[in-house]
Amino acid sequence: MSATAADLRAYERVYLVRRAEEAIREHYSEDEMKTPVHLSIGQEAVAVGVCEALGPEDRVFGTYRSHALYLARTGDTDGFFGELYGRTTGVARGKAGSMHLAAPDRGLLATSAVVASTIPLAVGAALALQQLRQPGRAVAFFGDGALGEGVFWESLNYACSARLPVVFVCEDNGLAIHARTERYQGYSSIADVAERFHCDVHRSDSSDVLEVRDLVRRALSQRETSGRPVFLHLRCYRFVEHVGPAIDRSWQLGYRVEAEFEGWLARDPVTVARARLLAAGTAEAELAALEAGVDSRVLASLRAAQAAPHPEPRELLEAVFA
Which CATH number fits domain 5-306: 3.40.50.970, 3.40.50.300, 2.60.120.10, 3.30.70.100? Predict the structure, then answer.
């Protein structure tokens, strides 16, 4: 089957996330980005795959590992790099930094540095959609570390009992910072537990963005029939450290296995998606042109951010509500 325009767009977004975060890795040591960074290198297929299945009316909420979600939902590199550099061109004029990116006009309502804190916000948004009889779904992204927070279980329970239009997206990279899943979870599979609730559960360990997108499309179609919340358990793997730009060699500290890293590295989301498009008949020259366009955008946005002015000190007191 030949690749479609939607397939090419999905690859373009995966490649965009990768190149944007590689640019962060390249320039972070210059100490001009005054914000911690939690990179998604290796996990891109989840955020992009889910977002490619969503519509403009859907409301999305995420975590402090927000780069992939922001870029997948908006494609906006100017506001992205402006924010990381703390400049007036940033999507929040430099106040949000890396961990609180949002674009409400594009359906990304909030991301947060506080673990699990946006899950109940998504449930509240779903409740509003239900009561106002408005179209769309609320989508909550969270890592497996959020499963240790009581608010996750309260949110899942209420959403299921009220049959809310909400999608729970567990980006399970097997680590809560540095703690492996088996060290802090008293159950073998969150998907097995979620199936005990009144929701539609779907699982995947694919690093292929098109497979993830198609799985989510099927899940959303099923929800139209069942009327129940959706729970997506999507396994993935981050290639870099929890926070910062370095490659994660955590097997040296004893909380990961080197063979596991090598196995996921062989399933790199960019490599997998590119190979699939080539196998479907996409010309190498077409992909190269797409990639060159992304590279140019990323570099131009980064340079523009570096040259943009910092906010005036008075702005510290503007648009502050708490």
Answer: 3.40.50.970
